[in-house]
Write a structure and sequence with these properties.
By secondary structure, the protein is an alpha/beta fold. The protein has ten helices and twelve strands. Bound molecules: zinc ion.
Length: 300
C-alpha cells in the first residue's frame, strides 16, 4: 500500500526533480476507481546496443511494443498507441529499409490499437476521453490516425510537438526517414492535437499524471498512475528496460545522453524513496514476458 506520506513525498519529489507544475488543464474530473491495462502491439527485432548504449553489441534482442489504457471512473485515457496498421502490411514501404533493418517489426493486422481495444475492452477510439503520447516515435504515436476526425484531444509536450514539426520539415529536404515517420502524422489536421508544458495532472486528482522525462527525445514524457493501491511509473522510452535503469545505461537511440541518464536517475530516486513504486519499462522483453495484458488488469 502507498501511505499518504509516501504518496505526498513522491509527488513533491516529482515537482522538485521536474521543475514547476506547468499545466493545469485537465481532461476530466477527479473521483472514481483507477484501473490500468497494458497492450502489446507486436515486437521489434533489434540488437542490444540500440536499447542499451554500447552494450553486448550485435546481440539480437526481440522487444515488445507496448501501449496502455487507464480507466478513471467512467473515463478512458490512452497512453501511446503502438505502430501504425500499415506496419503489418508493408513495413519497408511504410518505415523505410534502414529503419526496418535496425528495428524489424513483427506485427499482425489485429495488433492495431483500435482493434485491440475493441476486442479486449469493448471500446472504440471515440469512447476515449483523451490520449497522451509519450513522444512522436513510430512505435508510440504510430496509430494516432485512429483518432482522425474525432474530437478526442491528443496531448504531447510542446517541445515534442515542435520536434515532430521540425522532423517533418527535415524529411521534405532529406527524404530520409527516422523514428518520426511522416505518414504517421499525415492526418495531423484531422486530429485534436494539444500541447502541454511540464507536469500534466490529467484529472486534477494526482491519480494519472504525465511529467516530462526529456533525453530520449526533446519532449518525452512519462506517466504516473495510481491504481488499485499501487503506484506505477510508466516510463515509456525514458526507460527501455530495467537494466537501463538499474545500471544507468542510457538508450542506444537518444537525442541527449546526459538528459536520458538523468531521467533514469529520476526513476532510481523514486524507487529509493518508495520501493513499492513499480517502474514500468517500455521495451523490456523479460519484464513483459511475465506481465498480464488486457483484458486482464495490469498488476505488479
Ligand atoms: Zn519505443
Amino acid at each position: 500500500m502507498i501511505t499518504r506520506k509516501r504518496a505526498w513525498l513522491l509527488c513533491s519529489l516529482l515537482v522538485v526533480v521536474l521543475g514547476t507544475v506547468g499545466t493545469l488543464a485537465t481532461c476530466g474530473s477527479g473521483g472514481g476507481d483507477v484501473k490500468l491495462y497494458a497492450f502489446k502491439c507486436g515486437i521489434l527485432k533489434t540488437q542490444t546496443q540500440y536499447m542499451l548504449k554500447d552494450t553486448r553489441v550485435g546481440t539480437p534482442m526481440d522487444i515488445p511494443v507496448t501501449f496502455f489504457l487507464i480507466k478513471h471512473g467512467k473515463d478512458w485515457v490512452a497512453f501511446d498507441t503502438g505502430n501504425n496498421a500499415m506496419v503489418a502490411k508493408d513495413p519497408v514501404g511504410y518505415w523505410s529499409k534502414p529503419v526496418v533493418d535496425a528495428y524489424t517489426p513483427v506485427m499482425k493486422d489485429f495488433d492495431e490499437f483500435k482493434l485491440q481495444v475493441k476486442k479486449d475492452l469493448g471500446i472504440e477510439p471515440k469512447d476515449i476521453k483523451c490520449v497522451v503520447l509519450s513522444h512522436g516515435h513510430l512505435d508510440h504515436a504510430g496509430a494516432i490516425d485512429n483518432f482522425a476526425g474525432l474530437k478526442v484531444p491528443v496531448y504531447m509536450q510542446k517541445k515534442e510537438m515542435e520536434n515532430v514539426k521540425a522532423e517533418l520539415e527535415k524529411f521534405k529536404t532529406t527524404g530520409k526517414k527516422t523514428a518520426y515517420i511522416p505518414e504517421d502524422f499525415n492526418k495531423m489536421k484531422e486530429i485534436e492535437f494539444k500541447t502541454v508544458e511540464g507536469v500534466f495532472d490529467i484529472f486534477g486528482d494526482q491519480s494519472v499524471v504525465a511529467f516530462p522525462t526529456p533525453g530520449h527525445t526533446p519532449g518525452h514524457q512519462s506517466l504516473m498512475v495510481k491504481a488499485g493501491g499501487k503506484a506505477f511509473i510508466i516510463a515509456a522510452d525514458a526507460d527501455y528496460t530495467l537494466e537501463n535503469m538499474i545500471e544507468a545505461i542510457p538508450p542506444g537511440l537518444a537525442w541527449d545522453i546526459p538528459q536520458s541518464t538523468q531521467a533514469l536517475y529520476t526513476f532510481k530516486i523514486m524507487k529509493w524513496l518508495s520501493p513499492s513504486v513499480e517502474i514500468v519499462p517500455s521495451h523490456d522483453p523479460k519484464y513483459w514476458e511475465a506481465k498480464g495484458l488486457a483484458p486482464k488488469e495490469f498488476k505488479i
